[in-house]
């Protein structure tokens, strides 16, 4: 996922583009947050984002250390560099937070997302949906005479691309897990 969304002084000019050409960069960052696994922790972390108007693009949470009662929150967020720095600082100040890692700036990371796609169609649309699923390495996990449910794992961009291609073939519903990410190498 590219951290840069809008470049300062972008060359796109349109009568309908109301963005300030002098606006700061908007970056997307993936944060891995180690927290206590207890009631209300997720609500407090999300409350930090909502109270300050920070955007959450993706959110996943799961227990990762049963004996230590720790969970990992992986959040993909976007904002100016100052906003990203502020988010990290405010997360680090929370009592229930043990560690905050910005995987976007700390080095290479691996990001994956699981998605389910329900595609409804008959005839040539079914054949084309199956062909595209094979190309994208999506698995058929359910099938009826009128629909398929495909399961796919990949980068968020890959999931987005598959959804775009399935749209004209009868894409009826999508469920996504959100991004799970780990830093590469020994850290």
From TrEMBL:
SUPFAM superfamilies recorded: ACT-like
Superkingdom classification of source: Bacteria
Reactions that this protein is recorded to catalyse: 2 pyruvate + H(+) = (2S)-2-acetolactate + CO2
PROSITE patterns referenced in this protein's UniProt entry, alphabetically: ACT
Keywords: Amino-acid biosynthesis, Branched-chain amino acid biosynthesis, Transferase
Gene Ontology molecular function, alphabetical: acetolactate synthase activity
Known role: Catalyzes the conversion of 2 pyruvate molecules into acetolactate in the first common step of the biosynthetic pathway of the branched-amino acids such as leucine, isoleucine, and valine.
Alphabetized NCBIfam families for the sequence: acolac_sm, PRK11895.1
Name the UniProt record assigns to this protein: Acetolactate synthase small subunit
Taxonomic placement: Bacteria, Pseudomonadati, Pseudomonadota, Alphaproteobacteria, Rhodobacterales
């Amino acid at each position: 996922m590219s951290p840069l969304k809008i470049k300062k002084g972008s060359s796109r000019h349109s009568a309908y583009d109301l963005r300030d050409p002098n606006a700061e960069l908007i970056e997307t960052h993936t944060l891995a947050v180690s927290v206590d696994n207890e009631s209300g922790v997720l609500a407090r972390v999300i409350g930090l984002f909502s109270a300050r108007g920070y955007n959450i693009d993706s959110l996943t949470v799961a227990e990762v250390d049963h004996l230590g009662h720790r969970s990992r929150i992986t959040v993909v967020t976007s904002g100016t560099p100052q906003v990203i720095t502020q988010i990290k600082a405010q997360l680090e100040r929370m009592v229930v937070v043990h560690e905050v890692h910005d995987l976007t700036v700390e080095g290479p990371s691996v990001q994956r997302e699981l998605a389910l796609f329900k595609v409804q169609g008959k005839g040539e649309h079914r054949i084309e949906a199956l062909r595209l699923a094979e190309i994208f390495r999506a698995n058929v996990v359910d099938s009826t005479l009128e629909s398929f449910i495909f399961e796919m794992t990949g980068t968020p961009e890959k999931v987005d691309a598959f959804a775009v291609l399935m749209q004209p073939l009868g894409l009826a519903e999508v469920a996504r897990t959100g991004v799970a990410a780990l830093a590469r190498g020994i850290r």
